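Homework help thread (please don't just give me the answer)

Our assignment gives two proteins as sequence + structure token strings and asks us to describe the second one. The first is just a warm-up. Here they are:
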Amino acid sequence: MMGLGLYKVTGDSMLPSYCSGDYVLTFRFNTSTFKVGDVLVVRHSCLGNIIKRVERVEEDGLTFLIAGDNTISSTDSDTLGLVSIKQVLGKVVWHIAAP
């Protein structure tokens, strides 16, 4: 999988970094690697497409612990669980703020 994606931010889980109504542009190349602090768009089995920050990369480099920036209004990482690199739709490379 490789390419660009454009996603609309909904909800407050990534405040103050990303606000509801903002857009993010993502990039994913089939050999992409991710690190702590990267913001990813992930396809979650229960929540659909979500935007979260990488909190921890497991030793295998293929699974991650992710969480929102706004701990008060975000599903916590215990609920989200580990996500696989196969679930990553892309890394946020550009932020377009809502007017």
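The one we have to describe:
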Amino acid sequence: MPKYNNVLLIDDNEVNNLLHERLIELSDFGKHVKVIQHAPDAIQYLLQVANQPESIPDIIFLDIRMPIMDGFGFLDEFQKMPDSIRRNTKIILLSSTLDPNDNARAALYPEVIKMMIKPLNMGQLASL
């Protein structure tokens, strides 16, 4: 049985998205995986499903470094979302390197439960 019902991946890197989506499916980490490449599109998606509890992500894997809007810009917008979304959604930040400044910034957002180096692997998913 999957650990989470809905998982949202937000990353501009198509290869990472394919890898992470497949890993989540193979590990039985998530039942439904939604992939969105740009943070503004993810914000629109979340606002569209705000009144559909069955579609709201339980967990979001969010890349920090993206064009158009980075992960921290997304987090700022996430703070403004309805409680129906924020209440039960946890966020894991993904980065190719762990920058101490990113850790300090991430600590300001209560929804962020962890930072992980990408690409993800089975061990990282099991640790959640």
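TA reply:
I won't write it for you, but here's a hint about the kind of observation we're looking for: Residues 97 and 117 are 6 Å apart (CA to CA).
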